[in-house]
């Protein structure tokens, strides 16, 4: 069955697999002493789905019954110096009323990390190949069942990095990464991203004084759009005068070819106040830089970090806020964050989830349902997720809001959220009730919502059955309403 799957996959996917396998072989050849446990788990999913609007158009009346046959496998290795995961699913869709819509999609996820030379040389690999719906404003299809336009997205990355200790006086690190992003049919350019990072910091020999030197450069080359680069150098130092008071210094330079950036050097000095071992305040002021940062470690798993900066040079000069919050205990998990950055669609693709099943998650390049373009933009994003867990249930809330300020002097805004309740009401049976809604103000404003009720039951021998009822609707450039019912079974052999 595996050979049949590989035979059916297109040339782009084969090239991606070949690159991954070649790099993996080089890792194994260069470090033959790897000893890792290997596990191979094939899987199969069969399902039937009824939809009353297969094309996601208002009053289309195009209903259909869709059969899915999805074979796949997961390959995993675990060892002291090598960890790798490879997952492949081949989705086969068969439409009863219109067989011309029959389609085959694939979803590949692979990553590996290896320690080539003990405590010195390391290598990370990552690859993915999947399909995404091309986002129509107000109506984003989150899977492949609806017959809207699809794009093939392939990403692969190789990242060798090194670290070394110079006695107890200093610790150094160097990293290089090369990443390729291929967008077939998405409407945005392919890209390659090269990143270099070098750093040197003080070791335990320095007790009252700490220091660090850092350099980073990122070059993004786009086939059908302008290239851009980011380059930064920084030197930092601190000296503890008393137990609760220290002095700080920072100097650096920024060299970026972004429209939103200002190049030049900066320096600043200040103080560090530590009223408690878990609470710290840093104050910096100087030439082209003013900054206030607060760090509060509540528990081993809970912390709050807030940063305000007014910097005259850099990628996004001016007054900028950033912050993260993490509160975790036995029943509650609450995370929140806010960031401002200058980036592009390709830059977001470089850091987003690989699997298509994650494409609706907050933080993703496609989750905002705004237009996909090659323009650079300043991204301002706030998001939070909250979970409350009991012995049998989990209530989750995830919210996000985003503003994108483009070079061409226009803005796009989006906001949305998901509320869900998972109830494990029987020994092997679980219910999930969820609601997702979003609103965007882009080239065509719109809203969308998705309500889902599902039941799943573990039936032994690696088998799980499920039933899912959904109602989805949207308005904007694409207005639609869809009702869907799915039943299926999964095997993990």
What does this structure look like?
This protein has 3 helices and 24 strands. By secondary structure, it is mainly β. It has a single domain (2-492), classed as Maltoporin, Chain A. The chain has a 24-stranded antiparallel β-barrel. Strand 6 (150-166) and strand 7 (170-184) form a beta hairpin.
In short:
It is built from three helices and 24 strands.
Tag the structure with descriptive keywords.
disordered N terminus; mainly beta; Maltoporin, Chain A; 24-stranded antiparallel barrel
Main sheet properties: 24 strands, antiparallel, barrel
Structural class: mainly beta
Counting DSSP E segments of at least 2 residues, the number of strands comes to: 24
**CATH first level: which class?**
Mainly Beta
Average pLDDT rating: 85
User: What fraction, in percent, of the residue positions are helical?
Assistant: under 10%
Uncertain segments are: 1-10, 136-140, 354-368
Can you name the CATH architecture? Answer: Beta Barrel
Listing every helix as H and every strand as E from the N terminus to the C terminus, the arrangement reads HHEEEEEEEEEEEEEEEEEHEEEEEEE
N- to C-terminal separation? 14 Å
Shape call:
globular
According to CATH, the fold-level topology is Maltoporin, Chain A
Whole-angstrom Rg: 25 Å
